[in-house]
Amino acid sequence: MSGHSNHPKQKRLASLTQDPVGPTLLKMVVPQMVGVFGLVVYHLVDTYYVGQLGTLELAGVSFTFPVVMVAGSLAQGIAQGASAWISRAIGAQNGERVKQLALHALVLAFVLSCVVSIAGILTIDPLFRLLGADDETLPFVRQYMTIWYSGVGFILMTIVGNNIIRSTGDTRTPAGIMVAAAVLNAVLDPILIFGLGPVPALGVAGASLATVAARSLTLLGALWIIISRLGLVQIRRGMWLGIKGSWKDILSIGVPVSGTRLIVPLGAGLITRVVSQFGPAAVAGYGVGNRMEVFALAFGNALAIVMGPFIGQNLGAGKKQRIGQGFWTARWFCLGVGLVSFGVLLAVPEPLAAFFNDDPGVVRAASLYMRLVSWSYAFQSFFMVTAAGLNVMGKPVAAAALGILQMFGLMVPLGLLGSHLFALPGLFTAIGLSYFLTGIAGHWLIARVVRAEF
Q: Whole-model pTM?
């Protein structure tokens, strides 16, 4: 059977190679923003309800952030590797290859989920003690992560499934899936955490159970879209043929992407360890600050996500000039939105922090984080766009170098020095400085790549 297809459906999928660059990116980013905000609300709702349980409970869940990010980073590697190759195959009108890659990526995500689940459950206590959890917070960590690890397959496979859909240029459907997950989680959280009628109060474990339940239903939705609406996965004879080649292609991008993304949670784990020296309230406040940061960086995150299929389809279609235009447009988008985020977080940090937990120590630490880090969010957004673009263009080593520079060349050493000299203000200032410098470095690197190749 021929690997190439001129089927009308495949032509419709290649929708990112024709229209003006700015409107095309905005058309993709707006629904993706809705989805990212859904994911942000997802985390903020968890933080809010767990914060009502108490400072120790909130600190316990805050310790889980780096580990949850590690698992997500591994899944994002598979997701971005699959998206890069699928979007290129769509741009080249290679319909059979699109179907192969979609199926094989989902199988690879399932295998990864099994490994993460088993390894995670067996290492909860030693791992989180290493991150700084003590006898007061570790029981809450254990309650949360035992359930989370058990249902991690629903979470990781949804990430990969959404990226498969996104690679076709459709950002509305993944956004809808993410919003549905956020709404379901928001409904289940208070019921499972505090109890309602015959449902017992499960506390921290209830927050984790709500997450797993919401993601299990949204995974079913993503699979239905991929299989029934897009027809990208078909159960047929020979569907396993070429799976090793597909995995090799996906992992050729996925492993460096995961490695790059793992730098963030590994560094965050070290930063969390440093923050833990200032007490549970500081850890809880740092956790709240991180949640607000995810909200503030939602636009940059959405833009980084949509740049993948945009670059991939234009590479596959041989329209490299549009890639450079896409980066310059993204730079101005990041600058404008970053300045707005900075203004908001600088103006009202205390009320935002107190919304989650009114402990004075928590409010003080979270407000300090927002004031000292938010000025750099425009640069961090462009850093994320740069890293995503480099990966799709087949330059994962350059993306990894930027990530290593940010975390281990700047954030961790400057954070250790800053915390030693100026306590929490010094640590948080170092985080903002690392975001700023790597955003500048990313701009310089992309300029060089575009001049040399496009």
A: 0.72
